[in-house]
Amino acid sequence: MDYRRAENLEDAVRLRREMGYPFVAGGTDIYPAIENGARFPGLIDVSKVEALRGKIRREHDAWIIPALATWSEVVAADLPPQFDALKQAAAEVGGRQIQNAGTVAGNICNASPAADGIPALMSLGAGIVIAGSSGEREIPLEEFVLGNRKTALQEGELLRAVKVPVRAARCASAFRKLGARRYLVISIVMAAATLECDAGGRITYAGISVGACAARALRLAAWEQALLGRSIADLHALEVAPAYLAPLSPMDDIRGSGAYRVHAAGVLVREALAKAAVRLNEQVS
Q1: Does a structural domain hold residue 24?
Q2: Disulfide engineering: 160 pairs with which of 6, 131, 146, 278, CB 3.0-4.6 Å?
Q3: Pairing status of strand 203-211 against strand 218-219
Q4: Phi and psi dihedrals of 183, rounded to 5?
């Protein structure tokens, strides 16, 4: 296997364009894939590229998560309550060793339907900053992950950072995951909810995303729309209409049937909304 180490962002883009090899940083996805029989002619190591590193920080109207931020760094970062779901998801990404090495960009670019970090970021309205030979472009996360192991990256491009819009002070989120056991398990279903409200406790933004119930994580737009303008005190009384879960199309496998996953998704979303509402009540009162 050929091995190349990129010295900077331009070098990484050039190597990708010329060689076409996969990028590797933490290696928590690609090395198990190799152990399971995947074969690659070479790898491009981007772990030393400074432009992909740095602290999670606020810049003007957005929070910037560098591509090589690890899940342990996400957990440790000083972030507002809107990031609670992402922190909760970060603590569920494998064990501590995986969290110390695995990166946010790697989790997204691996594009697994069961990737824990994607629903949380999607509920936050995250966007993806893509670097390539012709410059940079930004697209919403839901347009970046196209399907199982498929992304919108074009030839010679890489994910440089994740951008999350700064929400109002009254904003909270929550993440819920269903697995065969508490830790170190692939998700059967997961859900994330982000809620923002005004001073009167009425919802002004709702982001709801479900993972492992289709070829990629999905936002539930009908459910989000149904929440706008409602009081957070009334969330417990809102019925789960079939239309809210209509975008989901989970498969049957050894971990659960499709029907079970759809039912579980509805339960997990309601639990995530309830947890986020409790945090919002604390901020409003």
Answers
A1: no
A2: 131
A3: antiparallel
A4: -130, 165
Low-confidence ranges of the chain (pLDDT < 70): 180-184, 284-285
In a domain, 12, yes or no: no
Q: Which of 165, 181, 211 is the last residue of a domain?
A: 165
Same domain, 183 and 279: yes
At 168 the pLDDT is 85
User: According to the model, what pLDDT value does residue 283 have?
Assistant: 75
pTM: 0.94
Burial class (CB in 10 A: 0-12, 13-18, 19+), 85: buried
The pLDDT score that the predictor gives to residue 284 is 63
Percentages helix, strand, coil for the chain (3-state, rounded to 5) are: 35, 25, 35
Q: Are residue 81 and residue 147 in the same domain, yes or no?
A: yes
How far from each other are the two terminal CA atoms of the chain, in whole angstroms? 59
CA distances from 75 to 9, 19, 86, 98, 175 (A): 26, 35, 8, 13, 13
